[in-house]
Amino acid sequence: MSRRAIALFLGASLAASVFAGPASATTDTTPPSAPTVLTVFEYQFLELAFSYSLSTDDVTPKAAITYELYLDGVFESDIVPFIRPQFPNSSNAFAYAHAPGPVTLTMRAVDAAGNKSVLSNAITVTATE
Questions:
Q1: pTM of structure
Q2: Which class for 126: exposed (0-12), middle (13-18), buried (19 or more C-beta within 10 A)?
Q3: DSSP per-residue letters across 12-79
Q4: Facing residues of 109 across strands?
Q5: Each residue of 77-99: pLDDT tens digit?
């Protein structure tokens, strides 16, 4: 099949991306703003509940920014925010402490191009069993 036939089949914009590759993902070099950890409390049995402000980015929409969660400075997991219409600038999540005692929670935002923000503020809470 010729390029012209593929372009007619796929449509001009899709065919252009097939032959040229992704356009903007490699040109975004600006990291998103850092999230702010708003509250953290020990929920039950080493489970931590927390809320955080959503980051903004110059290219990636707010709903497409993911977050990295760190407990005591060690990467714990990725978080995809649940954005509710009544609270469009914050989200809530849960994490599990590894042992009873104080644990410090921080986060970082990651945009679609893989740019990472600086770490958020740190909040320490005491986890209990």
A1: 0.76
A2: exposed
A3: HHHHHHHHH--SSTTT--PPPPPP-EEEEEEEETTEEEEEEEPP--SSS-GGG-EEEEEETTEEEEEE
A4: 67
A5: 999 998 889 999 999 999 999 99
